[in-house]
Write a structure and sequence with these properties.
disordered N terminus; Rossmann fold; 12 helices; 14% strand; DNA-binding; 434 Repressor (Amino-terminal Domain)
DNA sequence: CTGAAAGCGCTTACAG
DNA sequence: CTGAAAGCGCTTACAG
């Protein structure tokens, strides 16, 4: 009715504008928007139409300041292009979206010293209601500080430091590795099986190695330190120990590369050296997240439910935010995926 | 000095706490933090140490409300697991991080009708300072509304609708496709070259087809509609027309699959039907973003600088936010990557 | 069912 | 160089 009703409005409406147009108080507008407290049907209808006419959208900042809730989750990662980043993010984004929360993501470049870095944190209590922290993305002191603050946190692929009761989500790395190596031994009768470790502080790698060792032990195969090297969960790095083994003439039946990326590197190195995979040396990976099934030979690996991990972590974080409680540990099952690089078919 | 200086503090400090501890006003604290206005060296030092002691972090909400700036960029995507999503996001995240902004990302599920959806937008003027919009993720009316509001927007892989002067970033699809098809014709002497379109509304696909047609025309090869079908930039979908061609016995020398994903599908379909690639039929893709170089045969394609596109879009958006100006169009160069699926080597 | 008012934690003219 | 105070746009007891 008024002269501004024809879509010519150029500035943003506030709750006061809506209240005025609807002929109610801002408290009432707030009530209908948030469904907090009773409102007469007519009143609500008027408010909604005022909102539509003015194209009103509540300011997230004002709402956040007044309610002390940002309605935003944060995701702290390191390498944004890591192999499982895409499905992980998809899970997190999906869970966040469904809950109506917003998602702030930040890829750390390097961990800055806690002293200088404390003030300029990209993600924290100052801009989110809770944080999903990927392994190694936050120093222990910061983790401890946020925890003491009662700030909701969920860790991905990392056990909480010290005695902090921070929930965490990860895969069944050990049993996955165990099954995989069992397969190599039992089905293919390999006995000289090498293992490539991931980066230093990688817990996943630690558990995979444990599974590997358990499998050897269960089959009375002595553990040979000469068959363990660092592949760094990385294509390039993984090629180095393989070349060394080849040069030294180390007898090897199969290589458990630690993860798929390393497996790709291993296969390349092997093929470049004239070795046939799997005929001469078999190779297996872990994760099954890439499109490595197009490789030749198709990669035998262990499927890790990465997307589900992201979703589950989000669910736990939301629960922590809303109820103050969450599962201390979510361990997601892994599953062996047999293709051809192990020697099958 | 006071009894709360021993790290036992459990609640968050505000600017008032810092001011009190430093013995100054909150205005001064604000000035030292934001380096806005002159402050005596001593005063600043005291403020900084109060900040450190209290582990103070300014509330993003309060800051945003008071300054009318969220210092946050939004990224609106559709399919978070699309092939070029990872590098695109990496570029965006990198650009955002370096500028000190935060990044809010949202994967739309489906475009909701503008009427009902207007109020509950995940990303907009209410929570960001500007938006990076991937092709097709925002309806024209919403785009027009935000534009009229003077809200900073940058489009990715989409030309702005109507006459809106919204900057956009995309690749040189046409010339990339042109060079690729030229190669097939000139080097390999193929003349029956098929083309697989992407999804309906995909502008990239449109330009690639144009490059394809130009190449044919330049070499006096008549355009044959029977050699064009829909591959949907998708592995599964791309297999369908290939099977049809094979069944019908259509003579084909090479297939330009539209993008890499479709190329993978095409190669599978071909190999399953007993055709050799590239001996019987050559296949080429576009994007070069996946790890398809591990495929056999390694895929000949056109490299698209996806990460750079993300970064460039971010740069333009920041510029738009800060200066009100941006380049209307950023066209990033593509480059042919010859591997083996085209018949080379 | 509704409104007046305080307050969330900052920034920003305005004085001095 | 510094401070007092208004105001950003909401939510939330508190009254009625």
């Amino acid at each position: 009715m008024s002269s501004t009703s024809d879509g010519k409005a150029i500035s943003r409406a506030t709750i006061a504008d809506v209240a005025e147009r609807a002929g109610v108080s801002i408290a009432t507008v707030s009530r209908v928007i948030n469904e907090t407290g009773p409102v007469a049907e007519d009143t609500a209808a008027q408010v909604w139409s005022a909102i539509a006419e003015l194209k009103y959208r509540p300011s997230a900042a004002a709402k956040g300041l007044a309610s002390r809730r940002t309605h935003t989750l944060g995701f702290l990662v390191s390498e944004i292009s890591a192999p499982f980043f895409t499905p992980l993010l998809r899970g997190i984004e999906g869970g966040t979206r469904e809950s109506g929360y917003s998602l702030l993501i930040h890829a750390i470049q390097e961990i800055e010293p806690a002293v200088t870095g404390a003030f300029r944190r990209p993600l924290g209590e100052h801009n989110t209601d809770g944080l999903l922290v990927f392994a190694g993305c936050l120093e222990d002191v910061e983790l401890a500080y946020l925890y003491k603050l009662g700030f909701p946190l969920v860790l991905l692929h990392q056990t909480p430091p010290n005695d902090l009761a921070i929930p965490y989500v990860t895969f069944e790395n050990k049993s996955g590795a165990r099954k995989l190596v069992d397969h190599l031994i039992e089905v293919h009768d390999y006995r000289r099986i090498a293992f490539l470790r991931g980066p230093e502080d990688q817990e996943d790698s630690y558990w995979r190695e444990l599974g590997y060792r358990e499998a050897l032990e269960a089959h009375d195969i002595p553990f040979d330190p000469a068959l363990v090297a660092v592949g760094g969960f990385n294509e390039k790095l993984a090629q180095i120990p393989v070349r060394t083994w080849l040069e030294q003439g180390t007898a090897i039946d199969a290589i458990f590369a630690g993860d798929d990326e390393a497996a790709v590197g291993v296969i390349s190195a092997l093929q470049q050296a004239g070795q046939r995979v799997p005929e001469d040396i078999a190779v297996v990976g872990f994760d099954d997240v890439h499109l490595y099934h197009y490789m030749l030979p198709p990669l035998t690996t262990v499927h890790a439910p990465v997307e589900q991990a992201g979703r589950e972590a989000t669910v736990q974080l939301l629960q922590l935010i809303q109820t103050g409680q969450a599962q201390p540990l979510v361990l997601l099952p892994t599953e062996m995926v047999i293709r051809r690089s192990c020697g099958c078919e």
